[in-house]
Amino acid sequence: MSTRGTSLPRNPDWRDQAACLVESRDPEDFFPAGTTGIHLIQANDAKAFCRGCPVALTCASWAIQHRVSDGIYGGLTESQRRRITRRGHLTDDEITDLVKAAWGRDIRNPLVEAYLNNSVQGSSGHVWWRRRATTISVAGRVFTPAQLAFGVGHGREPDGHVKATCGQPFCVAAEHLADSTLRRRAPARATA
Ligand SMILES: [Zn+2]
């Protein structure tokens, strides 16, 4: 939810209770410029904030009904909302159920939680792994930090060895990592 486009006079409604407006959060916090690395962290911070908002459900439903194309509303990203609108016409109750289901899936994504809890944002977009251990066990599987970061950022299993392409061999920023498939596609790509 954000203050973008809400500067015109309007009648009192649910927006008056929206935590982001009541607390005057920076609207940009709810509009990540991408979906991986630092943007993923930003999106998750915004979603966590929305979870404490008293009108999150109304906000998410409103954004779905109005086909709002970008930004985080009621704890859901644009792509999460699109997954719901793609189902065609839905009643208010159906939208409510689908929003709640999407929230539930989000909170239970252990890979995202493990990545966010164990990494720290560095300068120049690099991300550093905070733990000493070279592997982490999540949901019954063992990952290297780079494998975990790649899976979270790219939404798929890495193919072969995951390497940083930014010149920082220990960087685990999802958008700085490439697996064999990506390296074949763009052998000289450098994102530093
Ligand atoms: Zn990097």
UniProtKB/TrEMBL annotation:
<keyword id="KW-0805">Transcription regulation</keyword>
<feature type="binding site">
    <location>
        <position position="50"/>
    </location>
    <ligand>
        <name>[4Fe-4S] cluster</name>
    </ligand>
</feature>
<keyword id="KW-0804">Transcription</keyword>
<dbReference type="GO" id="GO:0003677">
    <property type="term" value="F:DNA binding"/>
</dbReference>
<keyword id="KW-0479">Metal-binding</keyword>
<dbReference type="Pfam" id="PF02467">
    <property type="entry name" value="Whib"/>
</dbReference>
<keyword id="KW-0411">Iron-sulfur</keyword>
<keyword id="KW-0963">Cytoplasm</keyword>
<protein>
    <recommendedName>
        <fullName>Transcriptional regulator WhiB</fullName>
    </recommendedName>
</protein>
<dbReference type="GO" id="GO:0046872">
    <property type="term" value="F:metal ion binding"/>
</dbReference>
<dbReference type="GO" id="GO:0045892">
    <property type="term" value="P:negative regulation of DNA-templated transcription"/>
</dbReference>
<dbReference type="GO" id="GO:0045454">
    <property type="term" value="P:cell redox homeostasis"/>
</dbReference>
<comment type="function">
    <text>Acts as a transcriptional regulator. Probably redox-responsive. The apo- but not holo-form probably binds DNA.</text>
</comment>
<keyword id="KW-0408">Iron</keyword>
<dbReference type="InterPro" id="IPR034768">
    <property type="entry name" value="4FE4S_WBL"/>
</dbReference>
<feature type="domain" description="4Fe-4S Wbl-type">
    <location>
        <begin position="19"/>
        <end position="83"/>
    </location>
</feature>
<dbReference type="GO" id="GO:0047134">
    <property type="term" value="F:protein-disulfide reductase [NAD(P)H] activity"/>
</dbReference>
<dbReference type="GO" id="GO:0051539">
    <property type="term" value="F:4 iron, 4 sulfur cluster binding"/>
</dbReference>
<keyword id="KW-0238">DNA-binding</keyword>
<feature type="binding site">
    <location>
        <position position="20"/>
    </location>
    <ligand>
        <name>[4Fe-4S] cluster</name>
    </ligand>
</feature>
<dbReference type="InterPro" id="IPR003482">
    <property type="entry name" value="Whib"/>
</dbReference>
<keyword id="KW-0004">4Fe-4S</keyword>
<keyword id="KW-1015">Disulfide bond</keyword>
<feature type="binding site">
    <location>
        <position position="53"/>
    </location>
    <ligand>
        <name>[4Fe-4S] cluster</name>
    </ligand>
</feature>
<dbReference type="GO" id="GO:0005737">
    <property type="term" value="C:cytoplasm"/>
</dbReference>
<feature type="binding site">
    <location>
        <position position="59"/>
    </location>
    <ligand>
        <name>[4Fe-4S] cluster</name>
    </ligand>
</feature>
<dbReference type="GO" id="GO:0035731">
    <property type="term" value="F:dinitrosyl-iron complex binding"/>
</dbReference>
<comment type="similarity">
    <text>Belongs to the WhiB family.</text>
</comment>
